[in-house]
Amino acid sequence: MRDLRTILGLCPVILLTNMLALGQAAQEGIVQPGTAVQLVLKDHLSSKLNEVGDTFAAELKSPLYADGLLVLPRGAEFLGRVTEVKPASRMQQSSQMTIVFDRVVVPWGEESVSLRLTAID
Q1: What pLDDT does residue 28 have?
Q2: Are 81 and 102 in contact (CB under 8 A)?
Q3: Beta carbons of 7 and 38 less than 8 angstroms apart
Q4: Where are the domains positioned within the chain?
């Protein structure tokens, strides 16, 4: 599996921390626009092998804090899907793939997220 690091800018998203497991009341943290996180892709993606609708996962490389609260721990799993694939053709040597991350796995289930991909390393 290739170590593909993805830098994402978080759009305005509200995530709840599950403090109940720690014996505390649930708290709310607001992730500010422009907050960058780094994800490590867990699944291999290829314009030759993947099709529109294929799903994949990535892990959060470092914990995410908002307003001083831990919103997501290191290793939190983000789920995504392939939305467009344009394989390389004879005339065009490069291929294109559009992916989106739209869910994050949290202790109490899955939450919707809105992420904007800003770089791939």
Answers
A1: 65
A2: yes
A3: yes
A4: 5-120
Write down the pLDDT at residue 14.
36
pTM: 0.72
Phi first, then psi: what are they for 31, rounded to 5°?
-85, 120
117 exposure class (CB count in 10 Å sphere: 0-12, 13-18, 19+): middle
> Rounded CA gap, 41 and 1, in Å?
9
- CA 57, CA 91: separation in Å to the nearest integer? 32
Give the chain's end-to-end CA distance (angstroms, integer). Answer: 14
Two tokens at 117? 């991909």
Q: Which two tokens stand for residue 51?
A: 């099709």
pLDDT digits (tens, 9 = 90+) for 57-111: 999 999 988 888 888 889 999 999 999 998 877 777 788 888 999 999 987 888 8
The encoded tokens of residue 44 equal 């291999």
